[in-house]
Amino acid sequence: AKIKEVEFVKSSGRAKDCPRDNRPEFAILGRSNVGKSSLINALVRKNEVALTSKKPGKTQLINHFLVNKSWYIVDLPGYGFAKASEAARMDWSSFTKGYFLNRDTLVGVLLLVDASVPPQKIDLDCANWLGRNNIPLTFVFTKCDKMKVGKGKRPDENIRNFQQLIAENYPQHPPWIMTSSVTGLGRDELLLHMSQLRNY
Ligand code: GDP
């Protein structure tokens, strides 16, 4: 299940411009600041993978990284920028939704959810949309090392609340993994999970 090599392949503006070599892929998605770059770097555990999506002007692109010359990690634009205009948010959704609904090689979506804060509406909306559209989903809870702050709740309590709030959109609860890029929690579990979904 180890990641030995990661190679940036391309940025695509539309689902139909994505690579067409039929390799399986995992899309990684979450609110900006959820810890996506940290998680990808923890998974790869090598030199920093330059996330193209962080570069100005590339934020609205679908970025394909080829892993071990056999499967893809797909970095999708983050959602929920506090300052984004309503129009920019709509843009995000129609664009990314097109990718989810049309990408036959998509083995799973890893939806990153920050476990150090209470359930956020935008994450619930995204999870519910994916559930209603039968997109195969794994919840990857990030920042599970964080202790509760002030009146906040602990990560495990936030996770339980999140799961209760999405339950009605899922006949069976999707798999979920607790992670921390600081302690390495969940790293091996996530790699193993992805290899099981790929069937090798
Ligand atoms: P991105 O915008 O989703 O790519 O998020 P980043 O990976 O840049 O992380 C956003 C912030 O959260 C940074 O300040 C990170 O140091 C912090 N962060 C990311 N992952 C973790 C984690 O697992 N634990 C803790 N405590 N902080 C994290």
Automatic annotation (TrEMBL):
**Swiss-Prot/TrEMBL keywords:** GTP-binding, Magnesium, Metal-binding, Nucleotide-binding
Q: Does the keyword DNA repair apply?
A: no
Name any cofactors this protein relies on. Mg(2+)
Q: Which residues form the EngB-type G domain?
A: 22-200
Q: Which GO terms describe its molecular function?
A: GTP binding; metal ion binding
Q: Does the keyword Transport apply?
A: no
The text of the family note is: Belongs to the TRAFAC class TrmE-Era-EngA-EngB-Septin-like GTPase superfamily. EngB GTPase family.
What is this protein called in UniProt?
GTP-binding ribosome biogenesis protein
